[in-house]
Amino acid sequence: MTSYFLNWLTGTVPDAVPSFTRVSPPPDDDEGSETETEGDDDTPPAFPSLLSAQRVQSTPRILSDSELMPPPPPPHLAQRTPGVNLAARSSNASSFLTVLETTERPVKASKNRNKVALAPGHSPLDWASLKTSGTDLRGVESLSRIPPSVLKQHNKRDDAWSAFYGKVYNITPYLAFHPGGERELMRVAGRDGTKLFASTHAWVSAEFMLDACLVGFLVAEPT
User: Fold this and answer.
1) Confidence label for 148 from pLDDT (cuts 50, 70 and 90)
2) Distance (Å, rounded) from C-alpha 167 to C-alpha 116?
3) How many angstroms separate the CA atoms of 28 and 31, rounded?
4) Which 3 state secondary structure label does DSSP give 65?
5) Is the pLDDT of residue 41 over 80?
6) Which of 25, 83, 117, 192 is most buried when burial is the number of CB atoms within 10 A of its CB?
7) Secondary structure of 151-210 as H, E, C letters
8) Nearest CA among 176, 151, 186, 181 for reference residue 166
9) What does the pLDDT read at residue 152?
10) 42-46: Cβ within 8 A, 24+ apart
11) 163 pairs with which residues across the strands?
């Protein structure tokens, strides 16, 4: 090979051109066996294999009728009371098949409010119109600090004050508009009615309903 390149460099053409022989690796022993396929098979193998122990163990077992629905217990075991000796109970089988008494559901207190028929022109819409009409519903010239002793003096139908959540309102003009009637509203006249109001009208805003009747704020008695 070296002499060929030297002759090529010097311009001398050799008598014979060297040739190259390509030697292929010997064929495999398995070439041409019966297991060879003509095309590509991309199907994944079964896992676990079809005859493996894992596949045999994972085969679900078909339950019998007795396993699907076990027989009922004996009559003497159908109804058992904790702490009671079975021997002390009656041996008569029919006594164990008696129907147990059901417990009555407790009666819930009715949430229906006792409403009264209001006079014409005294609906909630009429009250909303009265508040925005400019009529003086307070009965006082300015707001003041009102102790319980002063609040107690306003407990008449023609002069009724009540306190809700720290604010004192003149409820006199609202008596005829109260859906529960004047009698129910007079229960809080002259005193703090926050507790009674919260237990019966928790969803109602007293501040919005009686904002035009505000006369002052409830304070402690002066010392």
Assistant:
1) very high
2) 27
3) 5
4) helix
5) no
6) 192
7) HCCCEECCEEEEEECCEEEECHHHHHHCCCCHHHHHHHCCCECHHHHHHHCCCCCHHHHC
8) 151
9) 95
10) none
11) 168, 192
Q: Which residue has the tokens 């008596």?
A: 175
- Cβ atoms of 180 and 116 within 8 Å: the answer is yes
Across the range 131-148, mean pLDDT stands at 93
Q: What is the largest CA-CA distance in the chain?
A: 145
For 218, the 3-state DSSP assignment is: strand
Residue 196, classified by CB atoms within 10 Å of its CB into exposed (0-12), middle (13-18) or buried (19+), is: middle
- What token pair was written down for 168? 């004192």
- For residue range 93-116, list pLDDT tens digits in order: 455 555 555 566 766 655 555 677
Contact between 36 and 42 under an 8 Å Cβ cutoff? The reply is no
What does the CA dihedral 178, 184, 190, 195 come to, rounded to 10 degrees? Answer: -100
Distance CA 131, CA 139 (A): 13
Query: Would residue 107 be called left, alpha or beta, if left means φ above 0 and alpha means ψ between -120 and 50 degrees?
Result: beta
Q: Rg of the Cα trace of the chain?
A: 51
d(CA 141, CA 92): 87
| Distance from chain centroid for Cα 43 | 49
- Please tell me whether the peptide bond between 48 and the residue prior to it is cis, using omega within 30 degrees of 0: yes
Does the model's pTM come out above 0.90?
A: no
Place of tokens 């306003």: 154
- What distance in Å separates the CA atoms of residue 192 and residue 119, rounded to the nearest whole number? 27
